[in-house]
Predict the structure.
Amino acid sequence: MSLSKRLQRAGREQGFTLIEVLIATLVLTVGLLGIAAMQMVSFQTNQSAYMRSQATYLAQDMMDRMRANTQGYRNTSVYDNINTDNAGTIPASPGCKGGDVGCTPAQMGLEDTREWVQHFVNIEGVADYRPVLLNGSGTVARGAGNTFTVTVSWDDRDYDTEGNLTRETVTRSVTYTADLF
């Protein structure tokens, strides 16, 4: 092979052209943007799942409080109509907790209600108070007999039919109904 042909071949095989580098950079950029979008969707769905588990915990917490105070829900109406949006249903502390005598079932029901409401409303006037759920609210309603329904609601972001996050805010809720004996 002649020297001129060798030099021509060596000149063509020396490295990447600027166009090849730009195309590789473009492909890499598109891939990184896709990963960033996936991370944002993952973060939002994780946040929604966290809110739902907090709401589930709060609803179960109130049901467990009522189950532990059978005389309170059977013989008093303290659990019958609790609404964290209505300040009139938020009782004052009976002041019996931690005392020598203890609480009566009615007083324990008031204390349970007050402690549960603190997850939604700043009833103590704490300076850096943050509610557990965004615009969260809770209700407890008595049905027939000893059937109680606990509902916890909060605001969340919504998705469209294609699974894309929208700017709309929707109210989600968790509801538990139990027949306490």
